[in-house]
Amino acid sequence: MLWLLPLVLLLTYLLYRARALPQRPWAGVWLWRKGLGRGRRRPRTDLRLFLLLLAGGALVLALEDPPLLPPPLALVVDASASMAADEGGRTRLDLAKERARSLLERAPEAVLVRAGATPSLLGQGAGVRLVPALMGLEAGNEGADLEAALALARSLLPHGAVVLVSDAPPPPGLNGYLGVGSPRENLGIVRVAPGFLALGNSAPRPLTARLEAGGRTYTLEVPARGYRGLELPTPVFQARLLGKDALALDDRAGFAWRRVGVWAPGHPALVRLLRLLDALPGDEVGMEIGIPEAPPRRPTLFFAPRGLGEGRVLALRPHPALEDLPLLGERLPVLPPPKGWEKVAEDEGGRGLLYALGESLYLPPLDFLKDRPYFPALVYNFLRPYREVKSGLLLPEETLLPTPKESFLPRAGGSRVGFLLLALLALLLEALLWARRKGA
């Protein structure tokens, strides 16, 4: 809107001059003015014109609403692994620091939040004092919870302008966004499992990956912006990608097993099964006989002490421990219902045959289950998340390298009311002075 300022001032001046009183060529006045022109005199100030120009300029500035001072700043910087991607010899995070520094230095009050897997506050106070914390940031988290980081920043500085610096697209509700990064070609390991891994490709074209795992080298083509799986001969492995790409943090990954500490009663069936699964006595997970009376303090398998008749499983909800188990149509004991638990298996009458609360399960009596062919698989599935050790993995979207959107800065006003009052005051003074002169 500032481009209107010279036009408004020029138009005001021309209209004012066009409406000036016509001059009459009287001989005495002409001779008097000619005589004045031979000497020195100060030009006459036109106060009315000055007030009209002041009012017009103030109205244009009120429409523009320029900021009087930089606003308080709630700055959130993405520190996920993709921000370590190479951008012509510098990382995306280096570019982010450079662009965010000028904003931070001008802020009279600021908070600085690091967006990683868990958001963290790096500092609060005058913006210039937070610059060292900004410049010391490092990227590397497997992902960034941007929503949680933005919520933390808003809670710490509710009246501040919230600005996100990231390579990911901005969520709604931001006052400002600085997008960093450009499309880059990257290959990375995005998933590992026993004897299996998957690769991701960020490029808009297929790329050929060379991979070393278990002492062998593999070559495979990964589709554009997609994934490719690879089965390995051994369940436990360490793998690394050969060659150089935009991001080094996703080039190594591995899979291994560990022994889980299990607290369990001394039932012979459980003792034999836990020995086969190489479990240790411990307190990481639990197995108990009884009806759950309170939320368990650790993931636990509860075995009902008794059943209330039997029912056939006609409805089964997903649960990780029940994955691939042939339970539909199976006849199971009806369980005494625990308070606050959700049914995951029901019979035709809606009676609960299996219950779950988070990762914990409430199952039929142990003496009923111990001879069922699916019982070892059930216990294996329950322990599997705690036995698996996956190293070097990032979230798949980090390997695919997000592409930022167009940047925008906070729009901070605050001067509109002042300029409107100035324009009104100038017009009132002009009206009073002109009315007084007309009356005289």
TrEMBL record:
Coiled coil: none annotated. Keywords: Membrane, Transmembrane, Transmembrane helix. This is VWFA domain-containing protein. The keyword Transmembrane helix applies. The lineage of its organism: Bacteria, Thermotogati, Deinococcota, Deinococci, Thermales. It comes from Thermus filiformis. The keyword Glycoprotein does not apply. The chain crosses the membrane at residues 417-435. Residues 74-168 form the VWFA domain.
